[in-house]
Design goal:
The chain is mostly helical. Helices cover 87% and strands 0% of the residues. The longest helix has 134 residues. It is rod-shaped, with a radius of gyration of 68 Å.
Length: 185
């Protein structure tokens, strides 16, 4: 029967127990060394690795929480900005409507003012025409009266002789004198 140590992985010769030395067979010693190193690493490194993983997990969770808080803050700011935008748009619409109303009101006021001014100008024109007509009528009357007087004087001068003229003047002076006495008395 073969030795158990000889049949281990059929890798070659193992020195007997009790002797100390170096095994130069790399294929036989590497799996053993690796398993010992891994065992030591797992035994001693489990706590360190667990702490590192826990720290990393906590940092990731903190980062996620911070990101969520930042996201919530950003959403809140976005909602506030959207509310301000709606408010500004409402104000702009109100100003636009009021502006249009104000423009229409100013337009109507301007049109009414122009109509009033035109009516006043029409009245001034009519008054000027009436005044000019009265002036022309008065001039025509004065000319007609002058011509009538000149015609009457011409007729009187041609019809009257000196004596008749003298008596007419005296009669008029007499009438004028009696009128004066009535007014003074």
């Amino acid at each position: 029967m073969k030795n158990i140590t000889d049949s281990f992985l059929c890798l070659g010769y193992w020195p007997s127990a009790g002797s100390f030395g170096f095994n130069t067979d790399i294929l036989a010693t590497n799996p053993i060394n690796l398993s010992v190193v891994l065992g030591v690493l797992v035994f001693f490194g489990k706590g360190v690795l667990s702490d590192l993983l826990d720290n990393r997990k906590q940092r990731i969770l903190r980062t996620i929480r911070n990101s969520e808080e930042l996201r919530e803050g950003a959403i809140e700011q976005l909602e506030k900005a959207q509310a301000r935008l709606r408010k500004v748009e409402t104000e702009a619409d109100r100003f636009r409507v009021n502006g249009y109303s104000e423009i229409e009101r100013e337009k109507l006021n301007l049109i009414n003012s122009i109509y009033t001014t035109l009516e006043q100008l029409e009245n001034y024109k009519n008054e000027a025409i009436h005044f000019e007509q009265q002036r022309v009528i008065n001039q025509v009357r004065q000319r007609v009266l002058q011509q009538a007087l000149q015609g009457a004087l011409g007729t009187l001068n041609s019809c009257l002789n000196n004596e008749l003229h003298f008596r007419t003047v005296n009669a008029n002076i007499g009438m004028f004198g009696t009128m004066k006495e009535k007014n003074n008395g």
